[in-house]
Amino acid sequence: MPFFASVEGVLTYQRPQSAIVMSTLQIWLDAANTSSWNGGATLSNLVSGKSVYNFSLVNSPTSSNVTYNGTTNRAVSFNGSTQYATPASSLLTAAQSNNWAETREYWVYWRGTAGCLTMESGTSTPDTSWFDAQASMSNQFLAYSVWQNATMTAYVVNSSMTSNSWNHIVWQHNKATNTLMAYVNGVRTYSNASVARTTPDSVAETQFYTILMAGSATNFGYGSASYMNGALGVYRWYNSILTSNQIYQNFFTEQNRFGR
């Protein structure tokens, strides 16, 4: 059965450190860090030695200074129709290295229009080769899915998302345990240990890309067919399942920056 946590769950966490978790971190994009983004067409990976995982910004997303709760952040702004971010290289080897245990972490400013946060693809271009939506926002809903042998099921992992605000969002799937999990603003909102995932290597596919802010023709509703109209501040990808304490540590480290 899915698990839903209350806000009070934060009180059970250990006292967090003020540092981003670095263990198993493969990708760290930060629009406010000039070492990651100088305003051009590339979001550079801040993880040392892993420039192969830089992202390309397609169709000229713009710089946006987003002010929320008295704080201003420089972010990459996407128009919700043609713009997206895509890895320069396949992530397949990194995903396979820990048996498809993934944590995807975002600071995203959602403007309220339904759209897809992440799609998976067999190439770096949306809707070419194989492709399927993974996370989306629509109305107040945050919904996740995984590819399950030609089917897509929507799992509503949070039903009270706030538009026109910064939100810290985490998508996790552990293939070994069939567990799909979600965290919003440091709190676990969903855990379902009955979500088996068909991964590219299990059907002889040779590439794996996570494309940000682009909608997918293979979708599960909840805005997952549409491009995202929003701003991306930070994206991190770990090839492991971070613990609740580690996720809250990352949220705690950056919450003041994003006005949470």
Q: What report would you give on this structure?
A:
This protein has 260 residues and is mainly β. It has one domain: Sandwich (Jelly Rolls), CATH 2.60.120.200. Helices cover 6% and strands 39% of the residues. The chain contains 2 helices and 16 strands. The strands form 3 sheets. Strands 1, 4, 5, 7, 12, 13, 14 and 16 form an 8-stranded antiparallel sheet that branches. It has a 5-stranded antiparallel sheet with strand order 11-10-9-8-15, with no helix packed on it. The two termini are 30 Å apart. Mean pLDDT is 94; it is low at 1-13.
The general outline is globular
Broad CATH class: Mainly Beta
Coarse structural class:
mainly beta
Output the CATH topology. Answer: Jelly Rolls
The secondary-structure element order is EEEEEEHEEEEEEEEEEH
| N-to-C span | 30 Å
* Total helical elements: 2
Average pLDDT number: 94
* CATH architecture type: Sandwich
The share of residues in helices is under 10%
Uncertain segments: 1-13
Estimated radius of gyration: 17 Å
Number of separate structural domains: 1
Question: How many strands?
Answer: 16
Strand content: 35-45%
Give the biggest sheet: 8 strands, antiparallel
